[in-house]
Model the fold of this input.
Amino acid sequence: MDPIWLNRASAQLPERAMKTYALAAPISTHRRIATCAEVRCERQARGWRTLLDVSVPEHAAAANWIRLHSGLSFTVSTP
Done:
């Protein structure tokens, strides 16, 4: 038995006078991943640093994605 029903008060009306309703919706309609802007995360407010060595192929690919596809604003600096 579902624990939520264990402490339910006993009905004061006859069964014929009551109706039961249920909500049938997939959980995916009730939850989603929030964006940094929505929750005002620290990285959104103060920014962050990503260190990439573009001589490493994986880093070069990541830098290229950030530059061309991420939609993020960024600043390039060299050591």
